[in-house]
Amino acid sequence: VKLGIPRERREGERRVAATPDTVKQLAGTGLKVLIEAGAGDASGHPDRDYTEAGAVVVPQLDISAVDILAHVRPLDPHTAAALKRGAVTVGLASPASELPTVQALTAAGATSFALELVPRISRAQSMDALSSQALVAGYRCVLEAAIRLPRFFPLYMTAAGTVPPARVLVLGAGVAGLQAIGTAKRLGARVAANDIRPASADEVASMGGTFIRLDLETAEAAGGYARQLSSDAGTRQRQLLAPHVAQSDVLITTAAVPGRRAPLLVTRDMVQGMRAGSVVVDLAAESGGNVEGVVPGEDIAVPTADGAGHVTLVGLKDPASAMASDASRLYAKNVANLLALMLRDGGLVLDFEDEVVAGACFTHDGEVRHGPTADLLS
Ligand code: NAD
Questions:
Q1: Which of 159, 183, 227, 239 could link 142 by a cystine bridge, Cβ 3.0 to 4.6 Å?
Q2: What's the ipTM?
Q3: How far apart are CA 101 and CA 95, in angstroms?
Q4: Cβ atoms 36, 6 nearer than 8 A
């Protein structure tokens, strides 16, 4: 069985779907690994490391020659159409927003797996790329804020006077938010956080943050995810958060509701109510934004209401890709662990009785198997 690893084509993408480590693991199961030259360059893995690990480096990956294709970003329709009949693909696929690719995959009779659809059960944690990449993003966003803040994060007591610690507010305390809290704490900031899932209060405390309790309906849905707040509750949440936002030197937003646009938590007025020099980093910028006016990939200077200066509003883009080495280390492991479920005695065995295999699969045998995507295509 041949596994192909392409060089990622999307602009700005620096990660790779296999590292020399996972190549060793996969080659050990009897796979022949073909990797496109330069695929690991941006994440710190030169071709020779792959060769040493047992892969064959090819100048250009012939998509039609591989049985399995592992990737980071969703495939483009052209690549999907070039797959051999019955090939398997594994990677981040966002099927509901990549309909032309889904159509090409079904036309090619491919069996495609989206890492985003891996069920979040204990057994599948080692395959959970949403969590591994959210961890990277949560860490990174604090560093992005820290370098833009014209102040220290930690408390300093010096001969020249005392510098108070920065106040950091994190909105949305899922995987990325908790990591942001931990990172800001390690840098010495005073950290507060809010989430609409009641269970998150203990998690925030365990990372060293102070949970802000708001007098709101709770909004926990199946699988430990949030559900969307009613429009009244959303307005009320923004009102209740405003004074906390105004007091913060750094605001980090990570709120998401599966399958929906990111909830708007912070209006322009709220940003303008912050002190001059404050920094806002919106991790949800690419999915609609938690902060009004955010633009993915850009820093915007928002004038403060008191005329004293401006707040820097950062629309974070591809934060995991900015830390391509460790992001790839974790991502490649997620891919290899999912593939391991499908490999037996050097052969590919797809067991759709397995809830992880069945849950992650979105096309098979010419059919779309992911309900929401199928609905969009019908
Ligand atoms: P996510 O990326 O979907 O959302 C991020 C956070 O935003 C969530 O905590 C959510 O509650 C919060 N949020 C949504 N609307 C909000 C609002 N209006 N105000 C404030 N916060 C809001 O979530 P995630 O990071 O993927 O994690 C979601 C849940 O899944 C968590 O309970 C997490 O512990 C759980 N989880 C379980 C596993 C597993 O068991 N394998 C793995 C990962 C995560």
A1: 183
A2: 0.95
A3: 8
A4: yes
Ligand 1 pocket residue status of 127, Cβ below 6 Å: no
DSSP string, 80-142: HHTSPTT-EEEE---GGG-HHHHHHHHHTT-EEEEGGGS--SGGGGGG-HHHHHHHHHHHHHH
Among 139, 87, 180, 125, residue whose Cα is nearest residue 333: 125
Q: Is the CB of residue 120 below 6 angstroms from any atom belonging to ligand 1? A: yes
Summarised one tens digit per residue, pLDDT across range 273-290 is: 999 999 999 999 999 999
The residue type found at 245 is V
Q: Which atom of ligand 1 is nearest to the CA of 120?
A: 41
Buried b (16+ CB within 10 A) or exposed e, 72-88: bbbbebebbbbbbeebb
Name the pTM for this structure: 0.94
Segment 117-121 long-range contacts (CB within 8 Å, at least 24 positions apart): 117/359, 117/360, 117/361, 117/362, 117/370, 118/338, 118/356, 118/359, 118/360, 119/355, 119/356, 119/359, 119/360, 120/223, 120/224, 121/355, 121/356
H or E segment and range at residue 25 = helix 20-27
Q: pLDDT digits over 152-205, tens only?
A: 999 999 999 999 999 999 999 999 999 999 999 999 999 999 999 989 999 999
